[in-house]
Design a protein that fits this description.
single chain; about 230 residues; 2 domains; 6 helices; globular; binds S-adenosylmethionine
Length: about 230
């Protein structure tokens, strides 16, 4: 795939478990790809600054946290929800890194480990935090909660919805719904404003079809694909 918005840089700072907390059972989304998808979503978005971004299947909040750390200049508010309470707890810890205070707390935590074990991985993590601190010019407001996204959601009115939906092997849908993707699209339409952009990453075979959303872009990447929709 040809990348338009995200250069092929070294993304080790964002490696799961280094500074960001890792979540057992969730395959974290590739850093460069999530940022590329965000780039496309922003291209279609009328609003370009002070964005509110929502992930309704946020897992451990890895993608959201990476987006916050890399785009603090344009993101003002990040919201995430997941049906799994354990994931939401991890997401809260990760999203807390998007403030000066949160980064300082994580620094103290890793510094204590470094003082105890003198591992190079901890020294690397401390350097990553220093780089994050320089990038994070302002704190991002965050809101993380437990919710089944196929059922009623709070009216967040996000500018961009970006999500990586369950896809079988690693993570299954956890819901009573017989058509979770459709029901999620229905709920997301209900909490969006007229210019909300939706970016979904899914299995190549999954179909996101709903009258409230019009597809503007489709990109296949191996067995997966991402699609960008505007709200009708
Ligand atoms: C592929 S993972 C997303 C990983 C996430 N992007 C990250 O960065 O950690 C899909 C997530 O969907 C969640 N999920 C499954 N059914 C759901 C539902 N009905 N409502 C909301 N989340 C759900 C799972 O708990 C899982 O965390």
């Amino acid at each position: 795939m040809q990348y338009k918005y995200c250069d092929n840089e070294n993304y080790e700072d964002y490696a799961s478990g280094r500074v960001l907390y890792s979540a057992e059972g969730v395959a974290n989304f590739p850093v460069r790809l999530v940022n590329e998808i965000f780039g496309y979503a922003k291209e279609y978005s009328v609003k370009k600054h002070d964005l509110c971004v929502y992930d309704p299947c946020c897992g451990g909040g890895y993608s959201l946290t990476v987006l916050g750390l890399m785009n603090a200049d344009v993101i003002k508010r990040l919201c995430g929800s997941d049906v799994d309470t354990k994931m939401v707890e991890i997401a809260k810890k990760n999203l807390a890194l998007l403030s000066e205070e949160g980064l300082e707390r994580r620094y103290t935590e890793i510094k204590a480990l470094y003082d105890m074990y003198e591992k190079s991985s901890h020294a690397d993590a401390l350097e990553s935090i220093e780089r994050f601190k320089k990038r994070m010019k302002r704190d991002i407001t965050t809101e993380i909660f437990v919710a089944d996204c196929t059922e009623e959601l709070p009216r967040l009115s996000p500018d961009i919805i970006i999500t990586d939906v369950p896809y079988g092997n690693l993570v299954e849908w956890n819901t009573e719904s017989n058509n979770p993707l459709y029901d999620m699209l229905q709920q997301l339409a209900g909490i969006s404003h007229k210019d909300t952009i939706l970016a979904i990453s899914m299995d190549k075979k999954q179909k996101a079809i709903h009258p409230a959303w019009t597809r503007k872009k489709k990109q296949i990447i191996g067995k997966r694909k991402f699609e960008i929709y505007i709200h009708d």
